Amino acid sequence: VNNTNSELRTVAVIGLGNMGGPLARHWLEAGLAVRGFDLSPIARAELQTAGGQAFPSAAEAATTADVVVLMLPDSRVVDAVLADLHGAGAVSAGSTILDMGSSEPAESRRQAQVWSERGVGYVDAPVSGGVRGAEAGNLTVMVGGDTDAVRRVEPLLSAVGTPHHVGPVGAGDAVKALNNLLSAAHLLLTSEAVLVAQDLGISAEAALEVFNGSSARSGSTEVKWPKFILPGTFDSGFAARLMLKDVRIATAVARSVGRPSLVGDTVEQVWARAAENLPAGADHTEIARWLNTPATD
Ligand code: NAD
């Protein structure tokens, strides 16, 4: 990492789960001091093992950090954690909040406004590439924010992947949600197509080999089916409920600009039924298993 930004020495990471854990490890390897908090004691212990410093609360972790990174499930949790940080006076003027979870664009814009009044910068920088991308440090990072704030967090972003500054605050979140709408749609339709092929006596492997050499190729045909669905491991590390959240953000964004998505609304309905019927922590690749079981509703 080329960390020439001398203002950036200490980072706090709130949310050390499937994505936040590997991010924190990359920043430690880059020579930064990493403070962290997660509700899970296991996640906190893993940060300590990796050489970071875990704290018993988000506020204690955030104190003294130049950048406070959030890698939390959704905007509701982001709002609760930021309210705590504000209540404790844990984020000082001149520092920056970097939300790397997949949040709601309107919520990020609202937070950015509130924190700018306190002299704190705000950048949304959700990622794509999954747990494997987080571990390898080759995520695609979709960045929204003003140029100065984005420049301050750039060393963190380029240490974990390739940043794309797509617009003002909320723009990163919007592109991320649209990306996952596309991803949710093609995983669903790929799964239906493979199941139809199997019913016709064609093996899933044979169908996928053809799709991957043809115009149906996607991350679902190239990665998700071969790596997580066919072997029956369903362990991509991205939960079905998080995918549903992202699809809902995307369809709401589409409606907000007066361009409702007909296909997107159907994709949302199917993912909502799947998420209701799958166990609480189910991986999103289990949509294929759910499609293959007789309807229960
Ligand atoms: P995760 O559930 O593995 O991690 C979230 C962590 O936040 C958990 O460890 C949880 O204990 C912690 N947490 C929840 N509430 C908290 C609170 N109040 N204070 C402190 N910690 C709290 O989820 P993840 O897969 O790491 O996803 C994080 C974000 O990244 C989500 O917005 C998700 O949509 C997005 N994302 C995930 C992936 C993926 O492949 N897993 C890929 C791209 C984007």
Can you put this structure into words, describing what you see?
The chain has 13 helices and 9 strands. α1 runs parallel beside α2, α8 packs across α11 and α11 runs antiparallel to α12. By secondary structure, it is α/β, with parallel strands linked by helices. It starts with 9 loop residues before the first strand and ends in a 6-residue tail after the last helix. It has a 6-stranded parallel beta sheet with strand order 3-2-1-4-5-6, sandwiched between helices. The chain has a 3-stranded mixed beta sheet with strand order 7-8-9. Helices cover 53% and strands 13% of the residues. Bound molecules: nicotinamide-adenine-dinucleotide (NAD). The site of nicotinamide-adenine-dinucleotide has 30 residues, from α4, β7 and α6.
Kindly state the number of beta strands: 9
Question: What ligands does this structure carry?
Answer: nicotinamide-adenine-dinucleotide
Q: DSSP helix count?
A: 13
Major pleated sheet: 6 strands, parallel
- β-strand percent reads 5-15%
Arithmetic mean pLDDT: 96
**Structural class, judged by helices and strands?**
alpha/beta
Kindly report how far apart the N and C termini lie.
51 Å
Q: Order of helices and strands, N to C?
A: EHEHEHEHEHEEHEHEHHHHHH
Q: Indicate the radius of gyration in whole angstroms.
A: 20 Å
Strand order, biggest sheet? 3-2-1-4-5-6
Write out key terms for the chains shown.
297 residues; 3-stranded mixed sheet; 9 strands; 13% strand; binds nicotinamide-adenine-dinucleotide
Give a brief outline of the structure.
With 297 residues, this protein is an alpha/beta fold. It is 53% helix and 13% strand. Bound molecules: nicotinamide-adenine-dinucleotide.
